[in-house]
Amino acid sequence: MIIGKIALTGSPNVGKSTVFNALTGMKQHTGNWSGKTVGSAEGTVKNGKKEIKLIDLPGTYSLSADSAEEEVTRNFLCFEKFEGAVVLCDACSLERNLIFALQVAQLVPKTVLCVNMLDDARKKGIEIDISALSRETGLPAIGISAANGEGIGELKKMMFELAEGKLSADFKPLRYPKSIDDLVSAVRPVLEKEFGTSGVFPVFEISKNEHGFVAEFEKRFGKLSENQNLSTVLSGITVPSDFPDKISACIALRAEEICLSAVSFSSNKSCSRDEKIDSVLTGKLFGIPVMLALFGFIFWLTVSGANYPSQLLSEAFSWVGIRLESFLSGFGFPPMLKSLFIDGIWNVLSWVVAVMLPPMAIFFPLFTILEDIGYLPRVAFNLDRGFGFAGACGKQALTMCMGIGCGAVGVTGARIIDSPRERLIAIITNSFMPCNGRLPAIIALITMFFTGSSVLGALILTLAVAFSVLMTLLVSKILSKTVLKGVPASFTLELPPYRLPKFGKVIIRSVFDRTLKILGRAVLVAVPAGIIIWLCSNFSFGGNTIFEIFAAVLNPFAKLFGLDGNILCGFIFSLPANEIALPIMAMGYSGGTLTELGSLSETARLFSENGFTPVTALCTIVFFLFHWPCATTIITVFKETKSAKWVFASVLVPLLTGFSICFIINIVSKLFC
Amino acid sequence: MENFSLCDMKKGELALIKEIKTAGNLRQRLFDLGFVPGTKVKCVRVSPFGDPKAFFIRGSVIALRNLDSKTILGVKEP
Predict the structure, then answer these.
(1) Cβ B63–A495 below 8 Å, yes or no?
(2) Residue A438 · residue A57 · CB < 8 Å
(3) Contact A99 B32 (CB under 8 A)
(4) What is the pLDDT of residue A149?
(5) I want to staple A456 with a disulfide (CB 3.0 to 4.6 A). Which of A48, A104, A201, A451 is the partner?
(6) What number of helices (H) and strands (E) belong to chain B?
C-alpha cells in the first residue's frame, strides 16, 4: 500500500543516487561529479506492507536560476502534490548545501535535512552536530554515511513518519529586511487564498516577475493579471530593485549562522590533501601530461589485458562452433540453413563477444574508478581554456568523457550544459569520441596492422583519442562561428573532494550494469545482422552476391577516401551498433563462407589478401572515429533536440569530418608511396 | 583599501568579497553558491592555462572562468 510521495533533492554531488539506490534497492548509476543524474527517477521504499514513492529530483544548486534540471526540480517542488521532501546535504560542504536546503524549506515546510558523508567529514576533521542543526533550523535532521549504508535504516523510518504526518517540522522562518517582510506578508496570503500555494518562494518569484516561473504558474493556475485581488495587492507595493540580491544574501548569511553552531573543524587536513593532489593533476607543468599519461595507462591496460582473454574466447567459440556444426549435420539439417546458422549468426556473434567483451570489461571498471574518484571535473577544469577558445562550454569535456562510454549517454548528459547553443555543439560533436562499441574495433585494427606491442598500441590509441579531442575543439569552433554563432556563456564548475571508490562495487557495477548491458544490445543486433549479411553474401544476381554488387557500387566512391566498397558497406550495415562493423567487413571479404572468424591474425590475413594496407587501416580507424552516430544515439539526439535539423547535423558533421580527413590521408599517402 | 577582481588573485591568496557586478543568469547562480558580499574566499586552483581559476568558498571548490570572476570584486583579507 502506498502511503505517500516524498521528494529527494539536493545539490549535485552529494551522493543522491547512492542514497536513492540504498533506499529503493535500485541500481541507478552514480559518479563523483555534478550533473550525473539529469532526469528524475522514481522508486519505491518498502517498510513491511507500507510503501513510499520516492522521487529522485535532479541535483541543483538552487531553485531560482534557469537550467533544464533546475526547472524540473522547481516545478515538482512548487506544483506537485507530495507528503514531504528530504534535502540531502554533503557534510563536507554543509554551508553551501544549506543555502539550497533553506530555499527548499521556504517552499516545502515538511522538509527533512539529511546530512550525508558524515564519515568522510570526520576524516577531514569536520564534526557536525545534528541536534544543533535541527534546533537552529527547526527541521528534523539526520546524519548518515550512505556509501557504508550507515543511517539508511533510520532515514527510512524518518521518511515513513514524514509521509504519515507523524514528524513535526517547525521551520524557523528567515529574517528578511523590513521591506521584504512587508512584501511577503502582503502577497503571501493572497497567493495562498486565491491559488492555494504555500511557502515564501512563489511570492519571491512572482514579485521578481521571473518569467519561467510566472509562465509555469499561469499554465497551472490561470493568468495572474486577471486575478483582481492579486493585482490590487501587487500594485500597492513596490518591489525594491535589489530584491533578489537581498534575499540571496539573507539566505547565505543564515546558512553561515547555522553552521557556526552546528559545524566544528578540528583540522583542515584533507582540504590541503586535495590541494596537493590537484597541484599535480591540474598544475601548470604536470596537469596536461599527467592527464594524457593517465588515459594512456588506462588504454594500455585495456589493450594488453584484452589480448589473451580475447584469444581464449575466440578459441572457445570456434570449438563450440565446430561441435555445433557437426551436431546440426547429424540431425540432417539442410546445408543452407546450417550455413546460415553457423556462418551467419554464430560467427558474427562470436566475433562480437570475443573481440568486444574483454576490452569493455577492462575499460569500464577503470573508467568508473576515475569517475568515482572525482577526476573527471578536473579534466574539464584542465581543458576549459580550449573549450572557451572554441566558443563552447568546459562541461563539454564531461559529456565527451561520457561519450567514451556510450554516445547516447553523452548526448543525454549534455543537459548539464545550460546554454542551448553550447549544448547543441556538445551533442553534434559527441560522436567524435570513440564509444565502447568502436574502441575495441579500433584496438583490433591497431593490433592487426600497426603493432603487436601493447605499449605502442596504447600510445597510438591515446594519440587517436587526443586527435579526436582536437577535432572536437576545431569543429566546435567552426560551429560557433557559423551555424551556432555566439559567445561562450558563463558557467560554474564544482571540483568535488577526491573520494576513495569502493573497488569491489565498482567492478561489479560496471561489469554487470554497463558492460553486459551494452554487449547485450550488440548481441541482439548481431543476430539479425548476421542473418542479413549472410543472405546478402549468399544470394546472387548474375553471378554476384547482393553484398558484392552493393560493395562494387560503393567502391569507386570509397576509394577516394582510402577505403573500399566493402569497408563502407560494413559501416553502413553497422548503423544499429558499431560493434558489428568489423565482422561485417570480414564477412564481406570472405564471401560469407568463412568459418574461422574469431582470431585476429586470421582476420588480418583475410583483410590483407583483399588489399587492406596500413593506409587503408589508418583511414578505417579515422572513419571509425568520425562517421555517424549509431541508431540508438541518433534517436537520442532527436529526443533531446526535438528537431530533425539537428539530428541531420549530428549525422552530417562527423561524416563530413571523416570524409575530409580520410581524403587528405589518401592524397598524402599517394604522394609519398 | 584597494579593490581587485577575483580573476587577478594568485593561488593561495585570500580575499573578502565586496561587490558582485556580474549580470545575467550567472549573478543568481553565484549568490546561490554563496558568493555574497562579506564572504571569505580563497583562490585554490589555477588551471594549466591560467584560466579558469577555482575558489574555495563556503566549504566547496568552485571554478570560474576569468571573464566571469572579473566581475566579482574583493578586498584583501585583513
Answers:
(1) yes
(2) no
(3) yes
(4) 86
(5) A451
(6) 2, 6
CATH superfamily ID and name for A2-163? P-loop containing nucleotide triphosphate hydrolases (3.40.50.300)
CB < 8 Å to A94, chain B: 59
Q: How many CA atoms does the CB half-sphere of A627 hold within 13 Å?
A: 24
CA distance A397 to A377: 8
pLDDT in tens, A600-641: 788 888 888 888 899 999 999 999 999 999 888 898 899 889
Cell 547516447 sits on residue: A408
Chain A within 8 Å of B12 (Cβ-Cβ)? no
Which residue of A lies nearest to B12 if distances are taken between CA atoms? A275
Contact A384 B65 (CB under 8 A): yes
All residues at 6 or more sequence positions from A300 whose CB lies less than 8 Å from its CB, including other chains: A454, A455, A457, A458
Confirm or reject contact between A42 and chain B (CB < 8 A).
no
The 3-state DSSP class for residue B19 equals: strand
Q: A29-38, A40-49, A233-242, B49-58 — which is least confidently predicted?
A: A29-38
Whether the link from the prior residue into A244 is cis, omega within 30° of 0, is no
Rg of chain B on CA atoms, in Å = 11
Give burial (CB, 10 Å; 0-12/13-18/19+) of B2.
exposed
Find the domain containing B40 and state its range: 3-76
Three-state DSSP class for A534? helix
List the CATH number of the domain containing B37: 2.30.30.90
Residue A408 to residue A394: CA distance in whole angstroms: 20
Tell me which chain A residues have a C-beta less than 8 angstroms from the C-beta of B34.
Answer: 95-96, 99, 252, 255
